[in-house]
Amino acid sequence: MSDLNYKSWNEECAVVGVYNIQDASNIAYYSLFAMQHRGQEASGISTSDNKKLFITKNKGLVTEVFNKEILCNLKGNNAIGHNRYATAGEDSSADAQPVFANYDLGQVAIVHNGNITNAKEIKDELIKEGAIFQSHMDTEVLIHLIAKSKQQTLTDRLKETIPKLKGAFCFIILSRTKMFVIRDRNAFRPLSLGEITNKDGTKGYIVASETCAFDLVGATHIRDVEAGEMLVFDKQKIQSHIIMQEDPYPCVFEYVYFARPDSKVFGRLVYDIRKSMGMELAKENPVDADIVIPVPDSGVAAALGYSKQSGIPFELGIIRNHYVGRTFIEPTQEIRELKVRLKLNPIKEIIKDKKIIVIDDSIVRGTTSKQIVKILRDCGAKEIHMKISSPPTISPCYYGVDTPTKSELISANMSNDEVCKYIGANSLSFLSLEGLKNSIGDGNYKFCQACFDGKYIV
Amino acid sequence: MSDLNYKSWNEECAVVGVYNIQDASNIAYYSLFAMQHRGQEASGISTSDNKKLFITKNKGLVTEVFNKEILCNLKGNNAIGHNRYATAGEDSSADAQPVFANYDLGQVAIVHNGNITNAKEIKDELIKEGAIFQSHMDTEVLIHLIAKSKQQTLTDRLKETIPKLKGAFCFIILSRTKMFVIRDRNAFRPLSLGEITNKDGTKGYIVASETCAFDLVGATHIRDVEAGEMLVFDKQKIQSHIIMQEDPYPCVFEYVYFARPDSKVFGRLVYDIRKSMGMELAKENPVDADIVIPVPDSGVAAALGYSKQSGIPFELGIIRNHYVGRTFIEPTQEIRELKVRLKLNPIKEIIKDKKIIVIDDSIVRGTTSKQIVKILRDCGAKEIHMKISSPPTISPCYYGVDTPTKSELISANMSNDEVCKYIGANSLSFLSLEGLKNSIGDGNYKFCQACFDGKYIV
Amino acid sequence: MSDLNYKSWNEECAVVGVYNIQDASNIAYYSLFAMQHRGQEASGISTSDNKKLFITKNKGLVTEVFNKEILCNLKGNNAIGHNRYATAGEDSSADAQPVFANYDLGQVAIVHNGNITNAKEIKDELIKEGAIFQSHMDTEVLIHLIAKSKQQTLTDRLKETIPKLKGAFCFIILSRTKMFVIRDRNAFRPLSLGEITNKDGTKGYIVASETCAFDLVGATHIRDVEAGEMLVFDKQKIQSHIIMQEDPYPCVFEYVYFARPDSKVFGRLVYDIRKSMGMELAKENPVDADIVIPVPDSGVAAALGYSKQSGIPFELGIIRNHYVGRTFIEPTQEIRELKVRLKLNPIKEIIKDKKIIVIDDSIVRGTTSKQIVKILRDCGAKEIHMKISSPPTISPCYYGVDTPTKSELISANMSNDEVCKYIGANSLSFLSLEGLKNSIGDGNYKFCQACFDGKYIV
Amino acid sequence: MSDLNYKSWNEECAVVGVYNIQDASNIAYYSLFAMQHRGQEASGISTSDNKKLFITKNKGLVTEVFNKEILCNLKGNNAIGHNRYATAGEDSSADAQPVFANYDLGQVAIVHNGNITNAKEIKDELIKEGAIFQSHMDTEVLIHLIAKSKQQTLTDRLKETIPKLKGAFCFIILSRTKMFVIRDRNAFRPLSLGEITNKDGTKGYIVASETCAFDLVGATHIRDVEAGEMLVFDKQKIQSHIIMQEDPYPCVFEYVYFARPDSKVFGRLVYDIRKSMGMELAKENPVDADIVIPVPDSGVAAALGYSKQSGIPFELGIIRNHYVGRTFIEPTQEIRELKVRLKLNPIKEIIKDKKIIVIDDSIVRGTTSKQIVKILRDCGAKEIHMKISSPPTISPCYYGVDTPTKSELISANMSNDEVCKYIGANSLSFLSLEGLKNSIGDGNYKFCQACFDGKYIV
Asked: Which chain A residues are within 8 Å of D346, Cβ to Cβ?
């Protein structure tokens, strides 16, 4: 996808929870750093020292929001953290997480990713009953529900209220002494559990959106949190409650684009699956060409797979400049058309006079693909065959991915031939739904692929 | 007071409301700038363009929080603003104002100064009913009350709920098309109404804690908002509702210390009253001396009055360095005892061998006075007579002033002689309660002076 | 002067030198902080630990340029420092001091204030001989001269080269083990010597533009550096060399405006002299009026003197807002004419219907005075008598003060009556040259007053 | 090399010159952005509008030093720019480029990369003659020489003085109306010439260290600047002068590590050569293995080549986190040993139980290689064969590369077997000098490879 327009398709937020590990804020910090790719708009950490909660959140990258002093002030052995890729909002600074609240049972801080599909209805109902909402985050809905519940304990309140929420979500909730981890009934979004052995021999736990966080902090991946499961961490033990029961339909787009290739998501290594997608793509869409090149970094693994399957040599024909930040000065009129080159520079010597297969993970609006084809043409490519390692994206996502509306999705509005013409390629092919299934190679392929087939689970 | 320890006695917050003036955010900005002395911790502005609300708030001085671009994005002709001097809190960044909320009637933004004395009870009650509180600010209490009210309009809801609040407060509330301005039943905190004639001949309005804001933006002071009054601004008209009726007891400490000398507060010029206080002090406490010097800047007006009354020459014997900011590096051990000199430098040539009357506005903990006496002694003063232009501060304030607890108020725990000995002066005298009354010279002296006499209105 | 246009008349730079005092960088830092009023554009400190030199300099206030870590890295017991008020230049960031250089005898760092009147000639000569200049600072001239000198020691080189320089200057030069302090032959700019007794009983020394620096760091003022004197500090001793001999003609404008009132300059307390100027002004220019008010802060001492002499009451009729910083957002068209009010707010209740004497220290272009008269008129003043506690400024300064050119000096181009009409006052009077002399009251009045009489010493 | 310790081996600085292109500062900015990999410590641009020079330089990345306003103030159609990777120095902020100077012919600004090997001697000589040096940059040497030259024009002075300089260097010099571009006699460092056709049909020119800059701004690569050539750009024409004549010996390390893979350096595409190096490495050092993985990003191209030649599958077995910045918080003791993981995360699922060939471009101190081997071992690698796509680095570079001293170069002090043991690999092999030559495949292989064979050209 390699989208130059960061706003067009928001990456998933990242969540992390740490329980009973010394200097929990540090562990949360490194975990969020490892998952920076899931959200660069804002970052926050809340900790508890079993007596009270501490919180710091702000706009910016993890490394910008925190410093030694701030982490040091986030006291305690339990922590939760969040990376956010904000959607538009009047005051997006108010939308950083964790969300903190005082309520009748004390204090809570909550982080959350995904999307609660019935949030608006519940919110409207709550507002009708006199509730107030101070941000644009669905997280507030849950806090209201638990605050209004008549159950005696937070555990019971969560058991009662969480099942009322529909959609894709992971919640990590910190009270003064406990931590609660919840994954939605369909397990749309990934959430894994790891452990660390403390120096004193006790066990510490970490829960994170992606296992790459475990690698960085030296934790061992135990298992994923289950669909509909709530884990309750307290000093004595971890308890597992299945509070909702439905079939899991994890989001296949995590494999396509979101997750880091070095993460194990839904029990499988992302890198492997992306390679398989490339291999399937090669089987389905053979074409005579001189080289296979990826759109970096999103298309690299699939391109390696395509090359392996097809025998056509893999080349790094486009180089990515990693110094592009959010403060970059927009090019003036004179060089505006070269905007894509700020990030991606094709190597003319590799491209020239070649028949080229270009691999990207997906096409959203088509504008970036169009620009990529153009810069390759300018380099003298003889033929450009754009191959996408996933099916055409034809439906928006309602489960936490900030996709454009249907009217903006190019494949929802044009045939493949039209898209091909629009982007200017010699040919364009997508992986088939069957091919996608084969790539994952699971006998019991059960994924949410609504963005590709329009069939929403809920 | 000239307190080096900024945390010991928080200045009052500043509020401003602007209605029907082009680029309202600019007017709010300059008004907040004029009232920067009432709070330097955080600043915020919310505007409405009759369609929706915009908000920006952050830590820092007015000139640090805002820039041209930010002001420009705060669209519309209505605005409210706030300067905050934070009290301690886990996450004080969450405590900036305005507070924004979505509720059943739409959107509101609220700014607020003062202190709601029954906030905790109402809050506890609300929490019991399932409400959640996301900050440490009493402002949330009002939002909950209006959200829960069954009245049909915001006007009616405010009429219903505001009278439930006790204490000292000013509220300015912005909805998408209206602005509401409310002053508590005892009119503890100052709040004045001004007007501007727009270019097109229409009237624009501004409400602010101090009239110095009007001077800067070129508005005319019309009158003060009345005790228990609610002003409702909408496109057609301004309506006044008296929603609570009690005798006004404005805070006398505004005259003593808080307000800028060039503001008219409670109908009287602060500078005049401070001079009168100094004159009364001279009548009550004559002493043979060579010169009268103020502790700058807080004691200047009273010292001028003392000099005028006593005939003893006024001298600027202590010079204040105005470059002291919040980022100042703490002195090392070697020069720590000179800490007070970072801000205040006595002029040895003026002080030496003189009998000196030093005028300050009040004594809180006594530590600063002690340091001032010491640096004057070091300059060779023959006698140091510390004279305070208000009575001894013996009781904490519950109406919006973040005073130390009683145990920290030196005059609540020591006799005048003991305080005099502690600070090391040759003599120490305070203005009497009678003298304070005379200074204000009002036939019907009715002020809250609980900090001086312990008699709380409510 | 209270100039809103900071660029119109640059304040003098500040210099400080510290020798044999532990953590010399801290002492330099506090000294520069005390002298911040002499330059706010840039600040720098260089230290030596007897082995090598360290340096940090940057744009901004002292408190912005330095922090604990930076001061800590400026190792050693000797230090020099500088506050700069930059003149216009292509790359003013290159113009911060100290200036550092490697030359044939090793390393030096130099700070310098004032103005070398023959710098251009020497520079042209040096350039003709092949020298290069990397900044706009005259300091480079001296470094070139000492680098080219054939003398064996830096002491001898300074003895040889300094006398070639004309004009007003103070130099403080740090080598790896020594510190050199030089004042020009006419002692135009102030430079005082102080001492501190170290814990181990040894003496430490400090040299600074103003004695207010000594007050802050707890040093004792010993004496001023003499006209044409060079002090050489080394481990064993301080040596004094008179390297140039001429009559001293210190700059009288230090008394009028530059120096802090709490500094002793040229052996006299600035505050005292300013008061005398006000008294002389009252003798020379009596007028019937109700009150005397100063333009704060520059006119306060003179206004006190005027009031004392005339018996007309002193009032703080204009309040200054000290939060004005360099980042202030310019007012929009709507309130542009109120620009002066950002800094100065007149108190209407004091001004209205009064005959007012306004005291300022000087008039440069007349634009600020005009604005002040206007805002006082707007407050309803009956009569406004502008009285200036110095003679008309008719000639530019060539000795370190960045005055406007003659064509911009209003009194150089208009009669007093014309100036009075321009600024809109009822009357305008200046202190006479005779009155200036009397204010300083020195039997042997010998000051450079070229800005007032056009008679340049050199 | 993928060095975690940024200080161990400084990347080369980048230089750019722009002549006769509208908004030259923008072109310089984008060019420096494209060459950010050659220096991240400081950045600067100087421009001329044919009347005078403008300059801005500061610490930080290109995107941090400049913004729209700054670029806008850098007026004119000619510009030079520089990215710097600083060596240690007392005041490295003084060491940013361009260096600006006034001298007898007017104003110049100079940028420079590389290293003048006889700088110290010339500098000592100049100092003996009375010159002063204000920074640690060799650039000052050239300015002194041209300032002292007796030739009438800058062109003639450069012709006279440049040949006195030895070593590796590129200079770009801006005067008010001309630009001069010079490459050393051995053409050690790359420097290419490109052109842009302006809207009005005139030609504009750009000179840059790497051609990737041309790609970004849409310029066409014409040719490289020749060894010993000086190009003089003025309004009428470009003139070429060969001012020194010797055989070119370009730096082979540009191919090994410095240059971006998408740059054409010394007439050849870097990516191609790196692939060839990998292929040669495979021919020289076959080993039985399951996969070939690169150390990203430096080893990717060579690993592709190795895989191609050997037929052993290429895998991205280590993922690089590109969010690592200079402000990263150092890990606490608990996870310190995982430091390398902040940047590099191995994929356990790919590594486990495999025989692995790891490709990196070079080994300097060996510490990073040791850490990489360790994290691969921790993933369960069966065998780890470290293969380096260049010969052992045994000698420091004197031509502009800030290499460690010989005592720090592990291969200068240990045999291959010892190094292999130190880093903990199963085997370690380097490309031979012969293999290096073959990779470049040039019949007339003439490169400086002193770092590999110790034979210095000069």
From this structure: 215, 262
Same-domain pairing of A230 and A277: no
Does residue B127 lie in a domain region? yes
D340 φψ region: left (φ > 0), alpha (ψ -120 to 50), beta (else): alpha
User: Is residue A454 situated within a structural domain?
Assistant: no
**Residue A207 and residue A91 share a domain:** yes
What order do you get walking across the sheet with A99-103 strand by strand? A99-103, A106-116, A167-174, A179-183, A229-233, A238-242
Residue C353, marked binder:
no
* Domain ranges, residue A359: 273-322+331-444
Q: Is A127–B103 a contact, with Cβ atoms under 8 angstroms apart? A: yes
Q: What does pTM read for this prediction?
A: 0.88
Residue at which a domain ends, from D193, D225, D242: D242
> With touching defined as 3+ CB pairs under 8 A, do chains A and C touch?
no
Residue C13 among the catalytic residues: yes
Indicate yes or no: CB of B315 within 8 angstroms of CB of C323. no
Do the two chains A and B touch, given a threshold of 8 Å on CB pairs and at least 3 pairs?
yes
> CB C215 to CB B341 under 8 A?
yes
Task: Let me know whether B356 and B397 are in one domain.
Answer: yes
Instruction: Domain count for chain D, please give it.
Output: 2
Catalytic residue among A13, A170, A379, A420: A13
The amino acid present at D137, given as its one-letter code, is M
* Residues forming a β-bridge with C427: C385
- Within a domain: residue B24? yes
Residues of chain C with Cβ-Cβ distance to B325 below 8 Å are 61, 63
What is the Cα–Cα distance from C22 to C27, expressed in whole angstroms?
A: 9
Q: Are residues D137 and D284 in the same domain?
A: no
pLDDT in tens, chain C (458 residues): 443 333 323 447 999 999 999 999 999 999 999 999 998 889 999 999 999 999 999 888 999 899 888 999 999 999 999 998 765 443 455 678 999 999 999 999 999 998 888 999 999 999 999 999 998 888 999 999 999 999 999 999 999 999 999 988 999 999 999 999 999 999 999 999 999 999 899 999 999 999 999 999 999 999 999 999 999 999 879 999 999 999 999 999 999 999 999 999 999 999 999 999 999 999 998 999 999 999 998 999 999 999 999 999 999 999 998 887 655 555 554 555 566 788 899 999 999 999 999 999 999 889 889 999 999 999 999 999 999 999 999 998 876 555 677 888 999 999 999 999 999 999 999 999 999 999 998 677 889 999 999 998 76
Segments of B162-317 assigned E as strands: 167-174, 179-183, 192-197, 203-208, 220-224, 229-233, 238-242, 264-265, 268-269, 291-294
Q: Is there a contact between A90 and B52 if contact means CB atoms under 8 Å apart? A: yes
User: Does any domain span residue C5?
Assistant: no
User: Residue positions of B in the annotated binding site for Mg(2+)?
Assistant: 298, 360-361
**Are D23 and D154 found together in one domain?**
yes
A38 burial (CB, 10 Å; 0-12 / 13-18 / 19+) is: buried
Q: Are residues C326 and C425 in the same domain?
A: yes
Residues A223 and A76 in one domain: yes
Please choose, from the candidates C35, C1, C37, C3, the residue with its C-alpha nearest in 3D space to the C-alpha of residue C16: C35
Instruction: For residues A177 and A93, state if they share a domain.
Output: yes
